[in-house]
Write a structure and sequence with these properties.
3-stranded parallel beta sheet, globular, 4-stranded antiparallel beta sheet, Metallo-beta-lactamase, Chain A, alpha/beta
Length: 161
């Protein structure tokens, strides 16, 4: 089994990390930020409260590996809610807090039959979506449930169900 790095995976489809103008992460847990620093020339699109938490002195001390994974991202666009990346509705970041303080999901129109809505860790498993299961380690359970309701309403509006 061959495991390719992100850089090599991008190369197989004709891209380099330098080709990206923007980078957005669903949230800043360790399993979602491992390759973030590769995109140091891109603008990081992040909810302001998520950014403030992960770059706070207490978090840098408590979770240095998290901070170290994003510290080279110096071009920052702090968001406070939903954000239409290109201003044409084709790529939209939707704020869906709860899993983390600034968790976000991503809507993409990619010229496919239907648009794509990436959930990040709003739902960990299909079963979580079916039964509105929220992991105990989420930042805010009530907020997660509100985000799930908002997500489902948005998906229904887009007819992505």
């Amino acid at each position: 089994m061959v495991i390719l790095s992100l850089v090599n995976q991008l190369k197989t489809i004709g891209f380099k990390v330098e080709d990206f103008n923007y980078v957005a992460l669903s949230h800043t847990h360790f399993d979602h930020i491992g390759h973030a620093n590769y995109f140091k020339n891109a603008t990081w699109l992040v909810q302001e409260n998520e950014y403030n938490l992960v770059t706070s002195d207490s978090e840098k001390t408590k979770n240095p590996n998290i901070y170290n994974a994003i510290k080279e991202l110096t071009k920052i666009k702090k968001l406070n809610g939903d954000f239409d990346v290109f201003g044409d509705g084709t790529v939209v970041i939707k704020t869906m807090p709860g899993h983390t303080i600034g968790h976000q999901v991503l809507y993409i129109e990619a010229g496919l039959e239907k648009p794509i809505l990436l959930t990040g860790d709003l739902y960990h498993f299909e079963k979580n979506r079916e039964n509105k299961g929220v992991p105990s380690f989420n930042y805010d359970v009530a907020q997660t449930l509100k985000s799930m309701e908002a997500f489902e309403a948005y998906a229904k509006k887009l007819m992505l169900q």
